[in-house]
Design a protein that fits this description.
Blueprint lengths: L3 E3 L25 E3 L22 E6 L10 H14 L4 E4 L12 H18 L4 E3 L11 H4 L10 H8 L6 E5 L2 E5 L3 E4 L2 E4 L3 H12 L7 E4 L8 H4 L24 H11 L2 E6 L5 E6 L2 E6 L17 E7 L5 E7 L7
Parallel strand pairs: 3-4, 4-5, 7-10, 10-11, 11-13
Antiparallel strand pairs: 1-15, 2-12, 3-14, 6-7, 8-9, 12-13, 14-15
């Protein structure tokens, strides 16, 4: 059912047990390591997990839910929430893209998705939640397809703020001896978007980290990965004609200010963990005392099954006040529907 990863020791090299299990192995350049979490499928998805170890705080990170009326996604979200609550978490944090898409949806569809998400969360979840904004949670930015012109009272990120009950698209809160920072990765570019922090948000983050004691561990949650190798394995492979050229990471698939942010985290000395989603794949890399985890997707391949061997699931983390933690990726036994 799960694979535990500790903050100090990445997953060991192991071959896949069968074709339902996938394991990505690679390494970063000097100074860092990467271990992609191996997914173990249990025989009893209803089996409750052991409670968090004494003195630790249990966090469930549920990203890329993409709830929609189609493909049984509402039932899938309910099943994921039920299994998440069996883990006995103190808090659930969503990682963005909670609805299938309002970025280019018509008004009626956007309202349907918001109602579906909020109704399911209210009905199925009794654990406190915090929310992160993803690109699919932003109303009507693709004006050509959405039919909106930007004058709508809840256009753009205001829709996401109202849906999640947040004053703005980034915020911070403290729990379990940790400081959590939920960022807004998504910035507009034409009818699309790119990933970075705008100037106001970057200065806010810089000040927040500078005024947070080094002894207070910080967990940063972003929708788009700040740093992840999944961006190199996701999507269509480049052809042989591109060999010898630079690798290109699409600006909407990883933060374009990744180096700047990593230097900020390293200088601050208190950022221990960065959680993300967006790619729907699973990896972990640790550099300069900061661990970056891309935590799969509740929806898998948008409710159509696993994506590159990564099953539908969510992250479970036991966080200790000294900044150490354990992480595992928990699947919940979802069978895709047609």
């Amino acid at each position: 059912m799960d694979q535990k990863l500790t903050a100090d020791q990445p997953a060991a090299d192991q071959p896949a047990a069968d074709d339902r299990r996938s394991f990505l192995r690679t390494a970063l350049a000097a100074g860092g390591t990467l271990a992609a979490a191996r997914i173990s499928l249990g025989d009893d998805p209803a089996r409750p997990a052991a409670p968090a170890p004494a003195g630790s705080f249990r966090l469930v990170h549920m990203t890329d839910i993409h709830v929609q009326p189609e493909l049984g996604a509402e039932a899938g979200l309910a099943a994921a929430l039920a299994h998440a609550q069996l883990q006995k978490p103190d808090l659930i944090v969503t990682g963005g893209d909670s609805v299938m898409d309002v970025f280019e949806a018509k008004r009626g569809r956007a309202e349907e998705l918001r109602k579906l998400l909020l109704g399911t969360l209210k009905r199925e979840c009794s654990v406190p939640m915090q929310h992160t904004v993803g690109n699919h949670d932003i109303l009507g930015w693709n004006k050509r397809r959405s039919g909106m012109d930007g004058s709508e009272s809840d256009w753009g990120k205001k829709f996401a703020c109202e849906m999640f009950g947040n004053a703005r698209t980034w915020h911070t809160f403290d729990r379990g001896g940790w400081r959590f920072v939920c960022l807004d990765s998504v910035q507009p570019k034409g009818d699309g978007y790119v990933a970075y922090l705008d100037d106001e948000q970057y200065e806010w983050l810089k000040e927040l980290l500078a005024t947070t004691p080094r002894t207070t561990p910080v967990c940063v949650v972003s929708h788009v990965p700040i740093l992840s190798l999944t961006t190199l394995t996701y999507g269509k492979a480049r052809g042989r004609d591109k060999v010898g050229e630079d690798n290109v990471i699409v600006a909407g698939e990883m933060h374009t200010d990744a180096t700047l942010l990593h230097e900020l985290f390293k200088s601050a000395g208190n950022v221990r963990l960065c959680l993300s989603g967006h790619i729907h794949l699973l990896d972990r890399c640790a550099i300069d005392g900061v661990t970056y985890i891309c935590d799969g997707a509740v929806s898998g391949s948008w409710w159509k099954g696993p994506l590159q061997g990564v099953r539908e699931g969510f992250g479970v983390l036991d966080l200790r006040p000294d900044g150490s933690f354990d992480h595992r990726y928990e699947t919940y036994g979802w069978t895709p529907r047609k």
